């Protein structure tokens, strides 16, 4: 049993050595429970709430950026809806300008799913960053799940915050440039949150404290 414990704490690669697997097969249930507990404790020690927080914030900006840029899908429709102020109802406004409900529905679907596309891209980049920094990949997954849950229950606060993040684009008269500028700014902020040295130091501080506490 001592040999197995020393094998695990020393190296994963040594644990999966065929000779060690044979040793594991000879363990009773109590010994296997001890090993399983050690594995669980080791994984829990790699959970980094700082990384989850930072990468969830970055994912929020990616989602906002993708959704903002998605309005470029049909700029004319945006102009029509803005000018009408929905005084006679959406359907009447669309008919007046020769836009079918199918076209309007396609626009809504595209803009709604664009946020999920942004979340997926943020998750992929988060995995890449975790790999480069030797952080636990589960943290990226937890950030992805957390952001999705908040999105699913409409708790991201985008409806309230977008008026602030969409302000820079209002300096332009062109609707297309307005959404393009706003989307690119949001996207840039998302990349900065992920790649700024300060973010990495903030995340690594937690990892360093965890290792220090574990060694003590």
List keywords for this structure.
single chain, mainly alpha
Polypeptide structure, described:
The protein is mainly α. The chain is 81% helix and 0% strand. It contains 12 helices and no strands. The protein has helices at residues 2-10, 12-15, 18-25, 29-45, 49-70, 75-84, 90-96, 101-133, 137-152, 158-165, 175-195, 197-215. It is elongated, with a radius of gyration of 25 Å. Mean pLDDT is 81; it is low at 1-16, 35-43 and 210-216.
Overall average pLDDT:
81
Helix segment tally? 12
Distance between the termini: 24 Å
Radius of gyration: 25 Å
Helix content: over 70%
Question: Strand portion, in percent?
Answer: under 5%
For the sheet with most strands, the description reads: none
What structural category arises from helix and sheet content? Answer: mainly alpha
- The low-confidence runs, each spanning 5 or more residues with pLDDT under 50, are 1-16, 35-43, 210-216
Number of distinct beta strands: 0
Order of helices and strands: HHHHHHHHHHHH
User: How does the overall form come out from the CA principal axes?
Assistant: elongated
């Amino acid at each position: 049993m001592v040999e197995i414990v020393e094998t695990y704490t020393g190296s994963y690669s040594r644990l999966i050595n065929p000779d060690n697997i044979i040793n594991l097969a000879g363990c009773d249930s109590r010994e296997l429970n001890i090993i399983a507990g050690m594995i669980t404790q080791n994984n829990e020690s790699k959970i980094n709430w700082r990384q989850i927080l930072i990468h969830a914030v970055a994912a929020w900006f990616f989602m906002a950026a993708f959704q903002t840029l998605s309005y470029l899908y049909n700029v004319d429709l945006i102009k029509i809806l803005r000018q009408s102020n929905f005084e006679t109802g959406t359907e009447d406004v669309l008919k007046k300008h020769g836009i079918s409900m199918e076209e309007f529905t396609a626009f809504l679907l595209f803009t709604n799913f664009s946020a999920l596309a942004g979340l997926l891209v943020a998750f992929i980049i988060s995995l890449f960053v975790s790999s480069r920094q030797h952080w636990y990949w589960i943290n990226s997954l937890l950030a992805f799940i957390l952001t999705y849950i908040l999105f699913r229950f409409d708790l991201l606060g985008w409806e309230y915050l977008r008026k602030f993040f969409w302000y820079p684009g209002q300096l332009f008269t062109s609707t297309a440039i307005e959404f393009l500028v706003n989307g690119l700014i949001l996207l840039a902020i998302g990349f900065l949150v992920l790649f700024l040295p300060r973010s990495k130091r903030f995340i690594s501080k937690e990892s360093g404290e965890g290792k220090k506490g574990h060694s003590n």
